[in-house]
């Protein structure tokens, strides 16, 4: 019974050192304006691009950021913070600026997807929440985009909610599914929240609770005469298909049609060909074949290459957890404080000083050619043909525009995805997309480095 | 703006097919008593045991399971369910029995960790929630237990919340951290919820926001004179250590002590030895060394084997996402309906029919020797020396006992972990722990199979 009955706010979802630093900043009058960049340092396994997501939730969080009474009481109970500082915290709101890429945008390492400019303490206290949300939605969106790429237009449904890391994560999967074009989800809670289409058929327990498979199929068809998909592998896929065909003909006699059969185990390549033949031989050419069970982008790709006559793929666990790359190396780093550019030099984790902009160049065919990482205020003709990716979405803590709809973000994603050259989208060993640094950015790094070395060398 | 303002309950966190099946059950009067087993089919990579967790949250969910008005309105809007069925759903509560292992218990494939006995529709509708929660907490608990094993008594703190899949998942990590013996967390929200110790030091942004590293250390020491850990790798670890030593001596002059220094990049083996020498040479033998950054059980093990003088490990991303095994193959299968044992035979996914008990045998030295998977009602003298792992925790939808405290579960885990032989705890290629099936269980499978074959063969 150690779980407290208090209700803590999401504003308390901070790392302890953020609050510890905040008190030290406050006591040392280190409260000037700061800019933080949120970016990934490198790609996770096999990725040649990432799809940015998570902004809407973050903006809602920043709009309502405030510690509640339970939060402050808890912090006081730690005997670690000064009362004056806690009084200051209880009045704190986020008053800063957010510049960000649009969700659904393709991005690459070292490119800021979000830049926060705000008084240092405000900007520091939101770090944990921002990293958590960008990591979650971006990891899922990128993994799901890979499945969309592999499916080459075949529909994909998502049934991963049972293995997502919590309900938040399962619902986020539904949201990014809408952005990248997943057709439907099995997660009702997420579908209700994000107005996604739902789909689902039956579990093996449905079959086994009846006296026989045929009886189970009949009962289901009786309940859903025009929306039935039969799961045929409970006992034996071939025999199950025969039973499905039998009941499908009974349905036809009553003026109804079986939608599809679902394979959930075994060798999907061989089975789908066998089952397609059986269905077609019985005149059931309109009955679709759906597969589920450990399906990911690699299996979709292999099955389609082998010519498996599969109409629709059900993805699950591997997509829901982004199993081959469950996290990205995303970080939130101070790049400017009190109008002075700053950087860290930690081995393998160096950061680029300065508030930035990302310019994207296209070929005449609307294919992305290269990006240039520049300072945010560079006035350079070279960028007149490029598109700046970071736009102001919040100023003085207030949203500059309503959130784009998920349909709008889906259309944006489609354009983005069509604009990346095939070689960067390969599932395995994709090419490196060129991200250059502007002359002004390079010069700023050299100046900042020189300055640090003059101070930090004894 | 597609996000609805309604508040949906967690009861709606069901897979669509569960509700679809529920209506078909209801229409076909298939509403008898059922038993479902929740178990894993096989180990994920490199695992020789799993640590069960997630029960408390599940029992709280079952105690309060009910669809709210928004849930029912949403389901009605789908035009898929009959009004009478929705009326039935809106009154539905969970009235069943839960038999479960205690959280913190070691378990193996095919052993039910939870068995639900309830009217079929109730038992079916809770499937998604149960699988999601057991997967989340069990995956995290097992991953964290591996780090505890590798650390051989060195303390471990957890700083993974920025890369957890959502806040729920980050907080669950704090909870299971208390069960397996993680010393502290950086996640304040989770610490507040589960009364865990918190820890944290400073980020690189703290250092870079000051004019110099020394100045930053002084400011921090000024704010936390008796609780400071200095992060020394912002620019150069050796120079950073020199700066830390300088400020540590200033602190000593004022009657205070530096706690520790933290390494966050580079080769921790080499650096920790160098830094320990520097600290000791300056008489700072009490200052501890903490490492963080991509630490997991394998790295802890390798560092300690190499004799690295590290006092404490900060684990993060890899533990927070269980990166090498982010999901387990846990399933929830009907094993008995209306007093009749049932099974599925899907290739590679066969289930064992019948309501069960797991008996665990120990040697005289209190070491676990083998488990026997038996029928729940076997009355056999052979089990008199064994311990039954499944106990009734809920009857008629009502909790049989208060939740054990996290301290109680931690003590239980310690006993469990001490009782598994070393060979099953190895980080790589652990041995297979013996799980046998009782004669009665084997006989039931044969009978059930014969019965299915007589029905399902045309």
Write out key terms for the chains shown.
homodimer, 458 residues, alpha/beta, nicotinate phosphoribosyltransferase, TIM Barrel, seven-stranded antiparallel β-sheet, six-stranded parallel β-sheet
Walkthrough of the structure:
- The structure is a homodimer.
- Chain A is α/β, with parallel strands linked by helices.
- Chain A has 2 domains: about 10-140 and about 325-455, Alpha-Beta Barrel (nicotinate phosphoribosyltransferase); about 200-290, TIM Barrel, CATH 3.20.20.70.
- In chain A, about 40% of the residues lie in helices and about 20% in strands.
- The first copy, chain A, has a 7-stranded antiparallel sheet.
- In chain A, strand 9, helix 12 (about 270-280) and strand 10 form a beta-alpha-beta unit.
- In chain A, helix 6 (about 125-150) runs parallel beside helix 13, helix 7 packs across helix 8 and helix 11 runs parallel beside helix 12 (about 270-280).
- The longest helix of chain A is centred in the first third of the chain and has 25 residues, at about 125-150.
- The mean pLDDT of chain A is about 95.
- Chains A and B meet through helix 1, helix 3, helix 6, helix 7 and helix 8 of A and helix 1, helix 3, helix 6, helix 7 and helix 8 of B.
What's the arrangement of secondary structure elements?
Two copies of one chain form a homodimer.
Chain A: H1 16-27, E1 33-40, E2 50-51, H2 55-64, H3 69-77, H4 83-90, E3 97-100, E4 106-107, E5 114-119, H5 120-125, H6 127-151, E6 155-158, H7 167-180, E7 184-185, H8 188-194, H9 204-209, H10 213-223, E8 229-231, H11 237-253, E9 260-263, H12 268-281, E10 288-292, H13 297-305, E11 312-315, H14 317-320, E12 330-337, E13 340-341, E14 356-362, E15 368-375, E16 387-388, E17 391-395, E18 398-399, H15 406-419, H16 422-425, E19 435-437, H17 439-456
Parallel strand pairs in A: 6-7, 6-11, 8-9, 9-10, 10-11, 15-19
Antiparallel strand pairs in A: 1-5, 1-12, 2-4, 3-5, 3-17, 12-13, 14-15, 14-16, 17-18
């Amino acid at each position: 019974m150690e779980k407290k009955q208090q209700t803590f706010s999401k504003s308390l979802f901070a790392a302890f050192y953020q609050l510890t630093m905040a008190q030290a900043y406050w006591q040392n009058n280190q409260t000037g304006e700061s800019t933080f960049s949120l970016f990934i340092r490198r790609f996770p396994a096999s990725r040649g691009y990432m799809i940015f997501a998570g902004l809407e939730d973050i903006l809602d969080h920043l709009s309502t950021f405030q510690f509640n009474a339970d939060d402050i009481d808890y912090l006081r109970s730690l005997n670690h913070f000064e009362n004056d500082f806690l009084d200051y915290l209880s009045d704190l709101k986020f008053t800063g600026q957010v510049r960000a890429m649009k969700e659904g945008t393709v991005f690459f390492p070292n490119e800021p997807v979000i830049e926060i400019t705000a008084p240092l303490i405000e900007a520091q206290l939101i770090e944990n929440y921002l990293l958590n949300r960008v990591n979650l939605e971006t990891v899922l969106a990128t993994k799901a985009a890979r499945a969309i790429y592999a499916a080459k237009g075949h529909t994909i449904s998502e049934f991963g909610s049972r293995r997502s890391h919590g309900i938040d994560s399962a619902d986020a999967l539904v949201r990014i599914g809408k952005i990248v074009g997943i057709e439907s989800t099995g997660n009702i809670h997420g579908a209700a929240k994000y107005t996604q289409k739902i789909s689902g058929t039956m579990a093996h327990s449905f079959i086994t609770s009846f006296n026989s498979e045929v009886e189970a199929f009949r009962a289901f068809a009786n309940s859903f005469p025009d929306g039935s998909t039969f799961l045929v592998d409970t006992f034996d896929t071939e025999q199950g298909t025969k039973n499905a065909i039998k009941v499908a003909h009974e349905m036809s006699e009553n003026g109804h049609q079986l939608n599809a059969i679902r394979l959930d185990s075994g060798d999907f390549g061989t089975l789908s060909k066998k089952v397609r033949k059986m269905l077609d031989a019985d005149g059931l050419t309109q009955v679709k074949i759906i597969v589920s069970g450990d399906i990911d982008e690699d299996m979709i790709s292999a099955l389609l290459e082998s010519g498996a006559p599969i109409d629709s793929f059900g993805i699950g666990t591997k997509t829901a957890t982004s199993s081959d790359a469950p996290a990205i190396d995303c970080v939130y780093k101070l790049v400017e404080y009190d109008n002075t550019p700053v950087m860290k030099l930690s081995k393998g984790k160096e950061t680029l000083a300065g508030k930035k902009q990302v310019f994207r160049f296209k070929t005449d065919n609307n294919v992305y050619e290269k990006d240039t990482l520049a300072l945010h205020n560079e006035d350079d003709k070279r960028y007149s043909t490029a598109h700046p990716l970071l736009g102001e979405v919040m100023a003085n803590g207030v949203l500059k525009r309503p959130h784009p709809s998920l349909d709008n973000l889906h259309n944006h994603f489609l354009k983005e995805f069509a604009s990346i050259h095939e070689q960067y989208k390969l599932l395995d060993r994709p090419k490196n997309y060129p991200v250059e640094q502007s002359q002004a950015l390079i010069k700023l790094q050299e100046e900042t480095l020189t300055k640090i070395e003059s101070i930090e060398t004894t």
